[in-house]
Amino acid sequence: MNKQQKLAILGFGALILSGCNTDMWRQPKQEPLDESEFFADHAANRPLVPGTIPRGHLREDDAFFAGAANGKWLDGFPDGVKVDKALLLRGQERFNIYCSPCHGRLGDGQGMIAHRGFSLKRPVGNIHTDRLRKMPVGHFYDVITNGYGAMFSYAARVEPQDRWGIVAYIRALQLSQYAAPQDVPAEEVSKALPAGDLGAAKQETAQADSNTRLAQK
Amino acid sequence: MAQIFKPSANSVAKLTLISVVLGVPSLWLAIAGLSRSPANTKVDVPLNQPVPFSHQHHVWELGLDCRYCHTTVEKSSYAGLPSTETCMSCHSQIWTNSPMLEPVRQSYETNTPIQWNLVNKVPQFVFFNHSIHIARGLNCNICHGAVNNMQITWKGNSFQMAWCLQCHRAPERYLHENKTAEGQTPRQQVFNMYWQLQEHGLKDLPEKEKQLADGHFAGSDEAADLEAGKELIKKYGVHTQQLADCSVCHH
């Protein structure tokens, strides 16, 4: 084997081995949640400078983004929020994710967390009270956005549009837990009950309903 | 002149030949095995964390939705780790004196993030996106293993390329539905298993979900499942022609 052949083999080997590095695995870039040696708090994620507004995202619409107008809570849904089945279903989904752990799937304050050691001076909020049935929708939006009592703000977790969805669903829950038999469309009643039981069931629900109303008074 | 090779040279020559024939493949196998073993991939190896967070407790026993903490999983490439504020939503009231949660309270008071140890990672030339996988109805456990069983989180799968390609080459083996209501999108179906598990327990789950929750789901080769999977590919608009292209993940 002459010198040139040896050099050729060595060179080829070096070329192959040069592929063995991990530069591409760990690139000199930062990904979300990475650790950074550059910043004092070692977080690559940077908080926005206070007052930063992304172009085109100035939140001028107080009704939509704060649930209030002229310093008063909104009593109806703001323009741009169309209350339809899609919004309600979205609200139901978000309610079940973010609210139900404490407030329960019915909003009655009997969620799993409420049963697991919440030792509050005041119990977890129940939306089925006279006070909250009469409360304008803006209040619920405000509570989600800014928190209330021991409840933290959910502004970082639930977007404004979804907050309105949750508010709409809260109204639906309030209606569902405080409905009189005559509120149920006749065809829905007959769908839910066998024909023969209709009269008896109606009487029964009416009785139960008046009982709860009495109890609440 | 004396002989160069003693009689023992015969044995040495044979041994050399045998060890080359056996040794090279076994070295090959050993390297291949090691690179796929938990020693290298860290699959099923629980990782110590500053706070011993239990997914089993929060997901299975309490029934918290994945999205309560991983808020961006449906709309971003990153699932997102909860901020300390999210932990404190409950833990400002519950277990407020627990020494286990001291790092959380410390982080909240000093406004510095908790430094979790990374469990799942792909090389930085891989551009993985959570949201599209959720949008096509892939349950979290398919990739992450039985998260609902994890007292301390571990990596459920190797995340090596060959593993990714199992599904990218034949998604019909993995796609399935778990509808609990009419009109549920595949995105919504992803999360049904977890509350069903909390509410009804393991034994009442649909067959596929039971395997998933148990950590034994590795695709299905049964004819009926493949047929259904192909239907779903059409229904969800999965572009199978491009799914195994290099540029899908390495763009």
Quick overview of this protein structure:
Chain A is mainly alpha-helical and 217 residues long.
Distance between the termini of chain B: 70 Å
Query: How would you sum up the major sheet of chain A?
Result: 2 strands, antiparallel
Overall average residue pLDDT of chain B = 92
Order of helical and strand elements of chain B? HHHHHHHHHHHHHH
Portion of residues in beta strands of chain B equals under 5%
Number of strands of chain B: 0
Structural account:
The complex is a heterodimer of chains A (217) and B (251). Chain A has helices spanning 3-17, 62-66, 85-103, 112-115, 130-134, 137-146, 160-176, 186-192, 198-216, and strands spanning 68-69, 72-73. Chain A is mainly alpha-helical and 217 residues long. Chain A has a domain at 82-176: Cytochrome Bc1 Complex, Chain D, domain 2 (Orthogonal Bundle). In chain A, helix 3 (85-103) crosses helix 7 and helix 6 (137-146) packs across helix 7 (160-176). The longest helix of chain A is centred in the middle third of the chain and has 19 residues, at 85-103. The model of chain A has no long low-confidence stretch (mean pLDDT 85). Chain B is mainly alpha-helical. Chain B is extended. The termini of chain B are far apart. Classes of the chains: A mainly alpha (217), B mainly alpha (251).
